[in-house]
Amino acid sequence: MKIINSVGEEDIAVVYLAEMEDGKFIEFVESFETPLPIEKKWVLIVSTMFGCPVGCLMCDAGGHFKGKLTSDEIMAQIDFLVRKRFPDGYIPSEKFKIQFSRMGEPALNLEVINTLRILPSHYNAKGLIPSISTVAPVGSDKFFEDLLLIKKEKYSNGKFQLQFSIHTTDIATRDVIVPVKKWDFSKIAEYGEEFYEYGDRKITLNFALAKDVPLDPRVLSKYFSPEKFLIKITPVNPTYRAVKNHLFSYINPSKSDASYQILDEIISAGYEVITSIGNIEENYIGSNCGQYVNMHLISKERIEEGYKYIKKD
Description:
10 helices; 12 strands
């Protein structure tokens, strides 16, 4: 793996662009939760595919797919970031989170399971918390069966975060936003009931919520137990695909203290709700979910809300 470029701020987030041995390109990220020091929290966001076959309407990493990364290639991203800061492999962070969510749908790559099997013995990291974010594509049952086993074996008692990216409670709208065959809410709920054990983190239902996109607490209550699932609302980040598809964020990332009626309704339905708004500078760096620096580099147009750290030739 050869690092060909990096953009960002060391105390906020840095996106690394790398070329693999076969000449294909990937991106991966390290991120910090200001003002917390690295000893408190350190987040790595790695790719599992060369591009992504799903093509979600707000994600710049979709629309092209050139194959899956091996476990060694996934580990190379993690190891580069770890050895850069902690050469001996001892990671003192109280929360050392590795998200498999930069490029690619992790549930379509069984090499992610192999990586999860390796991680605990590869580093001395008591704060290790892997995080899988998935749209739950049809055909990924083997992945989820293996994930259930590896979680029970190595990541019980709150050491794992599972997130289903739902984005809307309306079935037809969900099919438009996430244009692949995927598990329905009943199957996600059934799997969640089996996956969750006492002491685990609640399973996250993530909504990158766009304006005028339905989010109905009654649908949530029909399928998902508030005892085992929580709701996370994130902005639709500034991406080229979001602009092209006229998706505008319901959450205003510039107003972290704003109140929203739909969130109050979800809370009233009994759910724990997380409104996840990161540092606005990450939009300009291009490190947030759905952003993809290479898309910016090849685009003929510019979007004003994102990617400002990156200079175009």
